[in-house]
Design a protein that fits this description.
about 260 residues; mainly alpha; 2 domains; 13 helices; about 65% helix; about 0% strand; flat
């Protein structure tokens, strides 16, 4: 008996790929587990306890875990719990290493954060399959995942090329302006993790920042630095809506088999 869509999504959150195995999609299940756990493991291997740098500063007690809940890794619940279990004791020396920057940490934090988006997309994919929906040009999860990387690409794959180019262009332009106004430092997770949480919804943009702009040293704040940070965050939040719309477009295409309208509406 196939699980209900909600249950399939829930077990996939806890153990990536488990929902797909229960549905009878073992290949998808293996891919879900390998991608979700693999991304987190790669980031963790480079960061180790540095991943918890937000919890090493005040407030103390249980409240020190609250900032971690606002980061993408929290969606990858199973991996995050495993990493928390393996974390060393909070001795003064250990906390010093948690706060100490590491080479390549921008890319490592991007990779570990990406595991959270992978977990969410795979859970949604398991729910979609369990609902009995059939695919059109592209699976909704693939359309959303591609939109996370390149805004608008999911619409293009689903048959709405003009709409995809328009929406994607607006997101990319907004993010690019944010980087320009911020002198290339407006997207920097170690320095501004809460803003980065919103910015990370545009995966391709934060990947560019992690590889090119964020590792550069900043001598002084650019005059329009705050505006740059806000624009990059707005771009990420805008892409959340574009991802959702890409899912809907691909889902409608699979349900009724109709040709998606090429208009921008």
């Amino acid at each position: 008996m196939a699980p209900r869509p909600g249950f399939a999504a829930l077990v996939t959150f806890v153990v990536p790929g488990l929902g797909h195995l229960l549905i009878g999609r073992p290949v998808r299940g293996v891919l879900a587990f390998a991608s979700t756990v693999g991304l987190f493991a790669l980031g963790w291997s480079l960061l180790h306890d540095r991943l918890w740098h937000l919890s090493a500063v005040p407030p103390t007690g249980m409240l020190r875990w609250f900032p971690v809940l606002l980061q993408p890794e929290f969606v990858n619940f199973g991996c995050l719990e495993t990493a928390a279990f393996l974390r060393g004791a909070d001795t003064p020396e250990a906390l010093r290493h948690v706060l100490l920057p590491r080479p390549g940490e921008h890319l490592a934090m991007l990779v570990s954060g990406a595991s959270g988006f992978a977990a969410a997309l795979w859970a949604a994919d398991a729910s979609w399959i369990a609902s009995g929906a059939t695919g059109g040009r592209v699976a909704p999860s693939v359309a959303s995942a591609m939109t996370w990387l390149v805004p608008g690409s999911g619409h293009v794959l689903a048959g709405q090329r003009s709409k995809g180019l328009l929406l994607g262009g607006v997101v990319v332009l907004t993010f690019a302006l944010g980087l320009v106004f911020g002198g290339g430092h407006s997207c920097d997770r170690p320095q501004m993790p809460f803003w980065w949480a919103g910015q990370s919804i545009f995966g391709g943009g934060v990947a560019f920042a992690a590889l090119v702009t964020a590792p550069r040293s900043m001598v002084e704040y650019p005059p329009l630095f705050d505006l740059g940070v806000i624009l990059c965050t707005i771009a990420g939040l805008m892409n959340a809506m574009v991802m959702t719309d890409a899912w809907s477009v691909a889902q409608r295409d699979g349900v009724d088999g109709a040709e998606p309208a090429e208009a921008g509406a």
